[in-house]
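Entry type: protein chain
Record version: 2
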Amino acid sequence: MRNLFQFILRYHFFFLFLVLQSGALLLLMSQQQYHRTVLVSSANAIAGSYYRLVSQIYGFANLKRVNQQLALENTRLLAATHSSFLITDSAVFLENDTAYKRKYTFINAEVISNTIHRSNNYLTLNKGRRHGIEPQMGVITFNGIVGIVMAVSDNFSSVISLLHQETNISARILKNDHIGTLTWRGGNYRVATLRYIPAHVDLAKGDTLVSSGYSVIFPPGILLGTVRDYSIKAGESFITADIDLTIDFNSLRFVSVVKNLFSTELEKLHQATGRWPAQ
């Protein structure tokens, strides 16, 4: 207590100044409308800056939760898209009709490991067998195809990335429905290669590429990329095109794992005919 008194005595002129200054401001505000308005506006500006800063800090702290929520909503939207159902009668449009069967379901997951600089790249997801994930399931986002599940444990999944030289994706040119194969030859992780497009096909820079739907792994219509450039080598009858991928694999965070509910039936059919389905 004695130290407190000594502190007050030492700085009593300063405290007296604060009291007198506060009194002067109160008198000024009570007598002058202009000064009262200016002071209130300044106080509001300071308070507003403070709350904005607090809001930004709170928003950053909750960014992961928000991203997870967005990924979950994206998965729900994917599950509700037209391509997630198998329509066995084009004359039937009611969702609850037996001719309108769900073909795909989606499992939300987070990428916990990812490479882009190797010649063959892989990802690891934070969900596995006990979440319903199995090998040969597709991995996608709203922006494109990510890869194919290679192996699973109880709680994790290993995924062969699209940035892997053994990955071949059946692709469709959106404007004319012609089919080709999308591969990655290494190097730039934002650019892939489209092959086996017949030379007579109308192809132009900027054309959009989507998944064909021929695969038992991926739904049709998933974005893949746009044509950057293309060429036909002498003596060849197919176009080779460079494709700008829609996914930035270097910032990949949340994905959806695709389960084709008819995959077992389709694989048995393909095995019986000796024909393996496309990726």
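Comment: Helices lie at 2-10, 12-31, 33-61, 63-80, 263-273.
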